[in-house]
Structure formats: structure tokens, C-alpha cells
Specification:
The chain is an alpha/beta fold. The chain has 2 domains: 268 residues, Zn peptidases (Aminopeptidase), CATH 3.40.630; 156 residues, Glucose Oxidase, domain 1 (3-Layer(bba) Sandwich). The protein contains 14 helices and 16 strands. A hairpin with a 3-residue loop joins strand 2 and strand 3. The longest helix is centred in the N-terminal third of the chain and has 23 residues. The radius of gyration is 25 Å and the shape is elongated. The two termini are 43 Å apart. Bound molecules: zinc ion. The site of zinc ion has 5 residues, from helix 9.
């Protein structure tokens, strides 16, 4: 009798609250996904291999080619429905011999070596380097106000720090990165012969942060990033001494474009295979370190999503693709090519998730989706709360997936804690030992759980 009445109550509840039962089913599956990844996850040892055995993976380098082979091999062994390479021509920039940076003729300290590194894509000074007086500015307006008369023949020193008052360090980064991206060309327009940019860093330390610069249609002048410690020193000396000189020597060079690949693994959808969900990161990195957080972590998390689905024998309703994009750092060619081919093939990408903010503790997801879609996704927030993800909110997706924007794809960014990222970003410090296994796995769990919900429910 008891059994019968329980069944009646159960059916009654199911009738009244069908969605809560669906959520309960989802929450059980999400628990299984996290448990699988936290106990059997492979992202960490695979990231170790990528960082330690392959290393820095700048586009066009032999290591980038080795990373293509490695990630293809990993996915080949996973019994996926399809693993393939997507050819893409990428820029081939090479740093060359280590850079030299020096303050000269300082009334206070005479001569002092400072840590600099060439900005990605920049031209080199060649042997002998360049030496000139320095003009410090905080922004382009200040530079323009100085005018050609003052800027001509000088080295321009862009020294606007990242805003430490911003909680979100990516916002602080975004608020200062124009100096690196456009600074060299803005200075060249007024006749400068070289540019020194304060490293985009949260801390004052001795590590220069590289990153790409984008030349406009003006003379290409050499450009370096200076460590924040070096920037503070140079700035303090310039206050009472405008005649000091700065010297730097770089040997970087841009070679003709070279063939590389996006690496793609796929599990076909069981009910709606034509609807594709992408999860990915970028396989290339800067050349100064191992690209552990940026973005080996994101790539290995994306592969882990597929591994967990296979291990748990989940047959997703929609197609899931893990994509290792090539050349995010100095060209975005992989992301552009991926979107171009998707359009040509009439593929329907309903959502794309990018992990390119480091392998730190998960915090939230951000999406560029319209309000109604965002609200639909926000219904899932309670499913993530047990795992430390407390929000799905409006915000950026990611660079590599951004070219899918005009194909009706919902772009989603995986957002871990951002407080330590810009201590390491684009420096010699971005090494495997800075990645915590559990944090990395929790990120993979969050991404896999979201992929599962997207694949079950669509958008
Ligand atoms: Zn990155």
C-alpha cells in the first residue's frame, strides 16, 4: 500500500514540476561528470607533456607543429567519431637573439641594464640597436599633443599601468593594451624611431610581457616591452633628467606565412548532429615560456571534455567539437579560418565555449548572448553552484570563437579567478608548475557540464 501511494505522489509531482525532475537528472549527470574528471582526469598530465616535452609553441615554430601532432594523437586514441586537421596559413615571426635594453647617460645612475623583450610581430633594430632620448606618455592624446616637432627622432615610452582598482584584471588589461597594440604605429606617425611599452602586468616585477603589436600603414618601427620594475625606474629618472638616453637592440624578424593547422575532435550528436557545440582554446603560445596557462590549459580542458563524455558513455544529442585553434596570439588566423569554413560548409554552430583565461579556480561563465538566451542559460546556474560557479552573465566569449559571432552562435567565455593571470601572461613565468591540478580539473568539469546542458537542451 505504501508503495502504491508513493508512486501516486511521485507521478503527481512529476506532473506538476516536470522541469525540476529534468534538473534533478541533470544535476546527477553533472555530479558524475565532475567525479569522473576529478578522479580520472587527464588534462594535467597531458598539459605537463605539452609544456615540458614540447614547450613554447609560437605560430610557425617546430614546437607548434609538434603540438598539432600531439593533440591529434591524443584525440585519435579516444575513439571519437572524427579527428581532423584544418589547414591554415599563419604568420611566422621569430624573436631571434635575446634583446638588450639599457638606460644610458643618466645623471643619477649612469648606465643601467633593464629587462625588455620585443613585441610580437615587431621589426628588429638589427645589430647595434637604436639609441635616443625618451618621451614618456600615458596615452595617445598626450602623444598627439606633443606633436611631430617633439616626437621626431625620439623613443616613445608608453607608461600607463593596468588599473589596480579594477577587480576584474581582464578589464584592467583591456584598459591598457592599446599602448602595445597600436602604440608603435601611433608613435611612428609622429616620427618616433622606436617604442618602449610598459609591460601589461598586475605586479611590479622584473619580467617583460610580450604580446602582439599591429602595424598600421605607416613606417614600421621597432618596439619592446619593458618590465614594470624597469618602467618605474625609467619614469622616475625621467622626472629630473630629460636628456638621458635609452638603448635597445632586437633581432626579431617576420618571415613569409607558413602552413599550420587547427586540430579538431568530434563526437557526433545522436539526435541533432547538425547542431554543433564547440569547446576550445588556442594551441599556439608565446615563445618566452611554456604557455601553460595561456593557453595549454584551455586546450587540455577541451580535450578532457570529450574524454569525460566517452568515459561516461554519454551520447550527446548534439555534435560536440573540441577545437585547438592555431595562432590566436599573433594573428587569430585559426579562429578566422574555422569560422570561414563553417560558413562555407553551412554548419550550424549553436554555441562555442572558449577557455583562454588561465587554468585557475572556476568562477563563472560569461556570454555575449541576447537577453532571452541568457535568461534560458541562467536557469542552469543552481546546477553549477555546488562546484563554485556562481554566475552565468553578460560578458565576452573569447578571441578564437569571436569570428563565429555573425553566424548566430552563442559565444561563451569560461571565467576562472583572474587575480594571478597577469603576473604570468606572455612572460617567461607561464610554466607548468604554476598550474594546480585540481583547479585545472574543476575548470574542465565546468566546461563539460555546460557542454552537456547545451547538448541536451539546445538554446
Ligand atoms: Zn591566450
Amino acid at each position: 500500500m505504501i508503495h502504491k501511494s508513493l508512486i501516486i505522489i511521485f507521478l503527481f509531482l512529476l506532473f506538476i514540476f516536470p522541469s525540476s525532475f529534468a534538473q534533478n537528472k541533470d544535476s546527477l549527470m553533472i555530479r558524475q561528470i565532475y567525479s569522473e574528471i576529478l578522479t580520472h582526469g587527464q588534462a594535467y598530465p597531458q598539459l605537463e607533456y605539452l609544456c615540458k616535452k614540447i614547450g613554447a609553441r609560437l605560430s610557425g615554430s617546430p614546437q607548434a607543429a609538434a603540438a598539432v601532432e600531439y593533440t591529434r594523437y591524443l584525440m585519435d586514441t579516444m575513439k571519437l567519431d572524427r579527428v581532423f586537421l584544418q589547414p591554415v596559413m599563419v604568420p611566422h615571426w621569430v624573436r631571434g637573439q635575446k634583446e638588450v635594453g639599457k638606460i644610458l647617460n643618466s645623471k643619477q645612475i649612469g648606465e643601467q641594464i633593464v629587462n625588455v623583450c620585443a613585441l610580437g610581430n615587431s621589426v628588429g633594430t638589427g645589430k647595434g640597436g637604436i639609441t635616443a632620448k625618451v618621451l614618456e606618455v600615458k596615452n595617445f592624446e598626450e602623444l598627439k599633443n606633443l606633436g611631430k616637432g617633439k616626437v621626431n627622432g625620439k623613443i616613445v615610452f608608453f607608461n600607463r599601468p593596468m588599473d589596480a582598482t579594477k577587480f576584474n584584471t581582464f578589464e584592467a588589461y583591456g584598459g591598457a593594451s592599446d599602448q602595445r597594440g597600436a602604440g608603435p604605429s601611433e608613435a611612428a606617425k609622429l616620427g618616433a624611431i622606436g617604442v618602449v611599452v610598459r609591460s601589461l602586468a598586475s605586479e611590479i616585477d622584473d619580467f617583460p610581457h610580450t604580446g602582439s603589436t599591429r602595424y598600421q600603414f605607416v613606417r614600421q618601427i621597432p618596439a619592446v616591452a619593458i618590465s614594470t620594475k624597469g618602467a618605474e625606474l625609467l619614469s622616475s629618472l625621467l622626472k629630473n633628467d630629460t636628456t638621458l638616453l635609452f638603448h635597445f637592440e632586437t633581432h626579431c624578424q617576420m618571415f613569409p606565412d607558413i602552413l599550420s593547422y587547427n586540430v579538431i575532435g568530434e563526437i557526433k550528436g545522436s539526435e541533432k548532429p547538425e547542431e554543433i557545440i564547440v569547446v576550445g582554446g588556442h594551441l599556439d603560445s608565446w615563445d618566452l615560456a611554456e604557455g601553460a596557462h595561456d593557453d595549454g590549459a584551455g586546450c587540455m580542458q577541451a580535450i578532457e571534455v570529450l574524454r569525460a563524455f566517452k568515459a561516461l558513455n554519454i551520447k550527446p544529442k548534439r555534435t560536440i567539437r573540441a577545437v585547438m585553434f592555431m595562432n590566436e596570439e599573433n594573428g587569430l588566423r585559426g579562429g578566422l579560418e574555422y569560422a570561414k569554413i563553417a560558413l562555407e560548409n553551412n554548419e550550424k554552430h549553436i554555441a562555442a565555449i572558449e577557455s583562454d583565461r588561465g587554468g585557475f579556480t572556476p568562477r563563472e561563465f560569461t556570454t555575449e548572448a541576447a537577453k532571452e538566451i541568457l535568461q534560458k542559460m541562467q536557469v542552469w546556474t543552481p546546477l553549477f553552484e555546488p562546484y563554485g560557479i556562481n554566475a552565468i552573465k553578460q560578458g565576452g566569449g573569447g578571441a578564437d570563437i569571436s569570428p563565429l559571432r555573425n553566424q548566430n552562435t552563442v559565444l561563451i567565455g569560461y571565467v576562472p579567478d583572474s587575480q594571478r593571470y597577469f603576473d604570468l601572461h606572455h612572460t617567461a613565468q607561464d610554466t607548468f608548475d604554476k598550474v594546480n591540478k585540481r583547479e585545472l580539473n574543476l575548470g574542465a568539469g565546468a566546461m563539460a557540464a555546460l557542454v552537456y546542458l547545451l547538448s541536451e537542451n539546445g538554446l
